[in-house]
Design brief:
Largest sheet: none
Number of strands: 0
Order of helices and strands: HHHHHHH
CATH superfamily: Phosphate transport system protein phou homolog 2, domain 2
Radius of gyration: 19 Å
CATH class: Mainly Alpha
CATH topology: Methane Monooxygenase Hydroxylase, Chain G, domain 1
Number of domains: 1
Distance between the termini: 36 Å
Length: about 220
C-alpha cells in the first residue's frame, strides 16, 4: 500500500514539474512572441491530461478498496484535488500559448516589460507551491497563500491600465485584448497555486484552510 501511495505522489510531482515548465514556456511564448515555445506547451498539455487520468484512476481504486488509514485517505483525497488544479494550470498555459501565437504578428509590444513583471511573481508562487507540496512544507505553503491577494490586486491594476490604453488607441485593440487575456490566465494560475498550497497543508496537518477568511 505504501508503494502505491508513493507512486501516486511521484506521478503528482512529475505532473507538477511539467506544468511549472509549461508555465515558464507559456510566459516566454507571450513575452517573446515565440511560436516554437507555444507549440511545445500545447503538445505537452496532452501528457498532463493523461497523467491526471492515471492518478485519478489509481486514487479511486485505493479509496474503493476501503483499507486506507485516516492520513492515507487524506492524502488520496488531496491527490484528486491536486491533479485537477495541475490540469487546469496546464489549460491556462495552453491559453497563454495561444495568446502568444496571436501576438506574433504584432511587431511592437510596449506592454512586454509590464506583463513580464506581472508574470514573474506568479511563476515564483507556482514554483514555491510545488516545492511546498514536495517537502510538505506548511510554512512555505502558507507563504504561497498569503501572496494570492497581491496577485489579484496587481491583476486588477494591470487590467485597468490596459482598459485605459484600449480607449486611447483603438488601433492597438487586438494586441491589448490578447495581453489582457494573458494576464487573466496568469492570475488564474496563481489561484490554482494557492489551491495546491491549501492541499499541502491539508495533507500535512489535516487542517482545511480553504475559504478560511469566510469563517
Amino acid at each position: 500500500m505504501d508503494e502505491k501511495l508513493a507512486d501516486i505522489r511521484r506521478h503528482i510531482l512529475e505532473m507538477a514539474t511539467a506544468v511549472l515548465a509549461m508555465t515558464e514556456k507559456a510566459v516566454a511564448a507571450v513575452v517573446e512572441r515565440d511560436e516554437a515555445r507555444a507549440r511545445q506547451v500545447v503538445a505537452q498539455d496532452r501528457d498532463v491530461d493523461q497523467r491526471e487520468m492515471d492518478v485519478d484512476h489509481e486514487a479511486y481504486r485505493l479509496l474503493n478498496a476501503g483499507i486506507l488509514g485516516e492520513a492515507q485517505i487524506r492524502f488520496v483525497v488531496a491527490a484528486l484535488k491536486t491533479t485537477t488544479d495541475l490540469e487546469r494550470i496546464g489549460d491556462e498555459c495552453v491559453k497563454l500559448a495561444h495568446a502568444g501565437h496571436s501576438l506574433v504578428h504584432h511587431h511592437l509590444m510596449p506592454e512586454r516589460a509590464r506583463i513580464e513583471a506581472f508574470a514573474a511573481p506568479v511563476v515564483e508562487m507556482l514554483r514555491d507551491a510545488v516545492l511546498a507540496y514536495e517537502a510538505l512544507d506548511v510554512a512555505l505553503a502558507r507563504s504561497v497563500m498569503s501572496r494570492d491577494d497581491e496577485i489579484d490586486d496587481a491583476y486588477r491594476a494591470f487590467a485597468e491600465e490596459l482598459r485605459r490604453s484600449m480607449s486611447r488607441d483603438l488601433s492597438a485593440l487586438e494586441r491589448l485584448v490578447q495581453v489582457r487575456f494573458a494576464a487573466k490566465c496568469l492570475e488564474r494560475i496563481a489561484d490554482h497555486a494557492t489551491n495546491l498550497a491549501e492541499q499541502t497543508i491539508f495533507i500535512a496537518t489535516g487542517e482545511d484552510v480553504r475559504h478560511a477568511g469566510a469563517r
